[in-house]
Amino acid sequence: MIKRLCSHTMPKIVLVLVCIVITAGCAGFENRGKAGAEEPLQQMQSLNGDAKISQSWQGDYPTAQLNLLPENQREHAVGFIGSTETFKAVWNAFKPEEAVPSIDFNNNFVIFAKNTQFYNRIRIGKVNVTNGVAEVLAMETMSARPIENKVAMSLVVLNRQGITGIQSDDKVIQIYETK
Q1: 39-88 pLDDT, tens per residue?
Q2: Residue 9 lies in a domain
Q3: Which domain holds residue 17?
Q4: 31 and 86 both lie in a single domain
Q5: Distance CA 17, CA 118 (A)
Q6: Is 100:87 a contact under the CB 8 Å cutoff?
Q7: pTM, to two decimals
Q8: Are 160 and 179 in contact (CB under 8 A)?
Q9: What whole-number distance in Å separates Cα of residue 40 and Cα of residue 27?
Q10: What's phi and psi for 158, nearest 5 deg?
Q11: How many structural domains comprise the chain?
Q12: Which pLDDT belongs to residue 29?
């Protein structure tokens, strides 16, 4: 009697458990594609490790045009650009003789690193990400030349997926969704 009960009941219990697991797994995806649902999904899939740099540029940036950088990031050594409009304005000041590179800001954003105290050549070499927060590793020459009419700046393009913020000095700048 017990053997017969187990042989008929066990497959039903396993089927119920499988349905529960599938239903629970799908619940996390029900908001995919709805407005405002991308941010929590991005946080669930925070990146850990090295972020892949897809494009990079280095050069001089005029101090008179620092106002084109995002307002809350102008004084920081590191920041990000998350929209085509801001990038075009910054690029035209940074490399006025070159065409503006095409960047898909729906899937990518630009990180910049610049001088804040002395004029030194700078290059972003690597971006480490821990729990979604990007830390920029940049190399720069060492000089005691004061910043006068230009700063050295480096720009890199990264994929947005899994990155929720950028470490800048002692605070984290949150990445926001702007195109």
Answers
A1: 433 444 677 899 999 999 999 999 999 999 999 899 999 999 999 999 99
A2: yes
A3: 2-43
A4: no
A5: 63
A6: yes
A7: 0.72
A8: no
A9: 13
A10: -125, 155
A11: 2
A12: 33
Query: Could you please report the per-residue DSSP string of 141-179?
Result: ----PBPSSEEEEEEEEEE-TT--EEEETTEEEEP----
Q: Do 86 and 168 reside in the same domain of the chain?
A: yes
φ, ψ dihedrals at 43, nearest 5°: -65, -35
Q: Where are the alpha helices (DSSP H) in the chain?
A: 2-27, 38-44, 84-94
Helix or strand or coil: residue 100? Answer: coil
Handedness of CA 100, 73, 130, 105 (dihedral sign): negative
SS3 42: helix
Residue 43 CA to residue 156 CA, distance in Å, equals 22
Give the residue from 106, 35, 114 showing the smallest Cα distance to 69. 114
Whose CA is closest to 87, among 76, 97, 106, 101? 101
